[in-house]
From TrEMBL:
Source organism, top-level taxon: Bacteria
Species this protein is from: Flavobacterium petrolei
A single GO BP: bacillithiol biosynthetic process
Protein name: N-acetyl-alpha-D-glucosaminyl L-malate synthase BshA
Taxonomic classification: Bacteria, Pseudomonadati, Bacteroidota, Flavobacteriia, Flavobacteriales
Annotated Glycosyl transferase family domain residues: 195-349
Every Glycosyltransferase subfamily 4-like N-terminal domain range: 11-179
A matching Pfam family: Glyco_transf_4
Gene3D superfamilies: Glycogen Phosphorylase B
Molecular function via GO: glycosyltransferase activity
Amino acid sequence: MKIAIVCYPTFGGSGVVATELGLELARRGHEIHFITYSQPVRLALLSPNVHYHEVNVPEYPLFHYQPYELALSSKLVDMVKLYKIELLHVHYAIPHAYAGYMAKQMLKDEGINIPMVTTLHGTDITLVGNHPFYKPAVTFSINKSDFVTSVSQSLKDDTLKLFNIKNEIEVIPNFIELEKNINDPSIPCQRSVMAKENERIITHISNFRKVKRIPDVIKIFYNIQKEIPAKLMMVGDGPEKEKAEYLCQELGILDKVIFFGNSNEIDKILCLTDLFLLPSETESFGLAALEAMACKVPVISSNSGGLPEVNFEGISGYLSDVGDTDEMAQNALKILKDDLVLKQFKENALSIAKKFDIKNILPLYEALYQKAINKYL
């Protein structure tokens, strides 16, 4: 199959999922065309089956905001015609499904019928999409897609509750490329670089937005380090980072916290990690938690959104109500205080992560693609 993938090319979960999906599809012999405004961060190397087409948005004084959707639609039309692309897979309802629908209509006028699969990731539905300004366009885009998927049952439920959706929504969960994430036993994890031998290493990875509840991460760690020697690794960047640094200073723990900023070496960081913290207000799926679990790292998280579908209570970690930092810290200590308990949770985390291996999830997308293409035959 010749497939165009439209996504945000950033460190966010949707871009990572879309890129990894495309690369694995290419390895299976499909021809993949990434169409976006810059090269996706995980798209390090191109192969004969992987192509990248940049969407250029000309700047005109007439426009206060440059019309990206218009440029994207036009680019999609050109690439479909040039490369005989058979299917569009757009990640995020807005602006990508909206632009994809416009491209479909332009192509239809030229006698080309092409199916579009839209994958909902979360923010496009629960935060941005539900805004009154965008709600009609999001509803329209989802209903005009040939097939729609969501990354969790929780997100599907939210979508059906918030919008007047007539389309079926199929749940296809996010995935992990397990072979890439499992630590190579021949490469030792040099924990001594980050912590003393008796210190536990705790990690948080996110885009440091308010929804991630960064102060809660700090408070949980503060309570943990009062009971056992520990270090906290904060990976990522965003609007809440500076406040987090000040909070660490106020609590007198700045010397125990390392702020990394954005990193392309997540696997190396997780290799050193004993416990992952994700106390988010909500997560449509919880990809960061799954990446941690694939590296044998148990998770302490909130119980909101799709997190209970990934982090299994008392097995791969623990779930608590949003904001209950005291319980989260107590649960963390249950895991961290005993070496044997920690070892068991680490094994459990990997066992659950295996269910989300890309090799198990990819056939679901391939079957959906074939169904979409058959629709227009």
